[in-house]
């Protein structure tokens, strides 16, 4: 079944590439729980690598999906080869496969290919040249080639550009999560932005699947179209940082606003120091998004007029990064604590009512035994925890 506008009794099969990632995870969960008529598969990159044409050909020959969603990317700091092969060539090969089967292809793009400015439209982009980052270049080239494939060959595709993405279950510490991490771990003593008026557009990861499902049900309206998928009201960066600080009851960052030239010099100095350390055998990296330091000082807002004028209805118009912040803070601080990533964060330091400790659950108690009295834990497990798992019989 190639067109989801038709209602047929047989199940629709979709392919999600990048299903283990932040956006892919939301999509997978949505299609597994909310759409009984749709079956999705999300092979990982070991099974279907965008770098391997044979993987793509083999998958499409075997499975003949009814639609493809591509939310795969290589890490943003990847070199030219990886960025080209995964983000660009891989995306185009997926689109070529979708074209051959005449099925919808949904592509996720990024505001990284946009200049700074306000109310940028879907037609705006940076000029394509070698000075762009590998990530932005690969995203822009994909957008341009998809347009060409639509015009020349009738590719049925829809593209959504995301701004700063917020949502739980991100394995990376990047973008807003890096900001949250640095504030909570007290790694930002001063404000790395302007006092007021540095605005950005944010995208709610949990709403992406609703849009894609809607697109798949209305392919005629959305085919060949690009959309800015962002919350309508842009967010002031300083206000966001100060909200996190207040919520966590922190003393830093102090409200001293570091001018961009000073921040850039500091950034360059740190990369020099890190290079030096790496040369003498200590492995260290600058946070990937420090390459986007400039963005902390420049407004970039995306117009979502086109989205608002479409037939898509926002499933939760009240949700913004501010309404989601408490849940995100709780989720990520707990996760990063468990992963031992913090160096200065100590939950007990925070008297804030929001972060009060929940009662210790049994597995936390076991974790304490694992830490302090492993022999005792071994005995308990061997006495109580190794009988056959009867509940599966
Ligand atoms: N997150 C953001 O802040 C943000 C902002 C704007 C736009 N976007 C866009 O949103 C989309 C999704 O981003 P994300 O943050 O969800 O990404 P992510 O969390 O980094 O996940 C990347 C995914 O790509 C897969 N992948 C990597 N290399 C691959 C390869 N060679 N072949 C096949 N799959 C491969 C990974 O699969 P394995 O784990 O199996 O390797 C993983 O599932 C991207 O197009 C990105 O440009 C994201």
Poorly predicted runs are none
Largest beta sheet, briefly?
6 strands, parallel
Bound molecules: NADP nicotinamide-adenine-dinucleotide phosphate
Helix/strand/pairing category: alpha/beta
The count of helical stretches stands at 13
Write the layout of secondary structure elements.
Blueprint: E1 12-17, H1 22-34, E2 38-41, H2 53-63, E3 67-70, H3 80-101, E4 105-110, E5 117-120, H4 134-153, E6 157-162, E7 164-166, H5 176-184, E8 190-191, E9 199-200, E10 202-204, H6 208-217, H7 219-222, E11 225-229, E12 235-236, H8 237-247, E13 254-257, H9 260-279, E14 300-302, H10 305-308, H11 321-338, H12 362-372, H13 374-384
Parallel strand pairs: 1-2, 1-3, 3-4, 4-6, 5-14, 6-11, 7-10, 8-13
Antiparallel strand pairs: 9-12
Helix pairs in contact: 2-3, 3-4, 5-11, 8-11, 12-13
The structure holds NADP nicotinamide-adenine-dinucleotide phosphate (NAP).
């Amino acid at each position: 079944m190639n067109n989801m506008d038709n209602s047929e009794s047989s199940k629709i099969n979709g392919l999600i590439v990048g299903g283990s990632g932040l956006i892919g995870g939301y999509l997978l969960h949505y299609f597994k729980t909310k759409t009984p008529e749709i079956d999705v598969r999300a092979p990982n990159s070991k099974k279907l690598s965008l770098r391997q044409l044979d993987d793509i050909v083999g998958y499409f020959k075997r499975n003949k999906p009814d639609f493809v969603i591509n939310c795969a990317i290589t890490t943003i700091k990847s070199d030219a080869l990886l960025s080209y092969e995964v983000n660009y060539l891989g995306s185009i090969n997926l689109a070529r496969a979708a074209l051959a089967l005449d099925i919808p292809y949904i592509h996720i793009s990024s505001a990284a290919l946009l200049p700074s400015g306000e109310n940028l439209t879907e037609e705006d982009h940076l000029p394509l040249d070698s000075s762009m980052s590998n990530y932005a270049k690969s995203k822009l080239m994909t957008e341009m080639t998809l347009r060409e494939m639509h015009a020349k060959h009738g590719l049925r595709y829809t593209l959504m550009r995301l701004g700063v993405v917020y949502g739980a279950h991100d394995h990376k510490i990047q973008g807003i999560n890096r900001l949250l991490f640095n504030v909570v771990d007290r790694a930002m003593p001063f404000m790395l932005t302007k006092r007021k008026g540095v605005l950005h557009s944010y995208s709610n990861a949990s709403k992406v699947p609703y849009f894609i499902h809607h697109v798949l049900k209305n392919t005629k309206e959305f085919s060949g179209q690009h959309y800015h998928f962002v919350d309508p009201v842009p967010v002031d960066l300083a206000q966001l940082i100060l909200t996190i600080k207040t919520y966590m009851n922190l003393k830093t960052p102090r409200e001293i606003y570091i001018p961009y030239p000073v921040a850039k010099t500091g950034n360059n100095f740190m990369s020099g120091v890190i290079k030096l350390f790496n040369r003498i055998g200590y492995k260290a990296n600058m946070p990937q998004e420090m390459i986007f330091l400039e963005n902390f000082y420049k407004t970039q807002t995306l117009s979502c007029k086109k989205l608002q004028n479409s037939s898509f209805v926002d499933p939760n118009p009240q949700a913004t990064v501010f309404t989601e912040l408490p849940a995100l803070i709780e989720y990520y601080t707990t996760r990063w604590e468990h992963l031992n990533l913090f160096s200065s964060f100590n939950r007990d330091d925070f008297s804030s009512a929001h972060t009060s400790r929940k009662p210790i659950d049994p597995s936390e108690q076991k974790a304490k035994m694992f830490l302090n009295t492993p022999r005792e834990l071994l005995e308990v497990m061997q006495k109580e925890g190794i009988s056959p798992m009867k509940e599966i019989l």
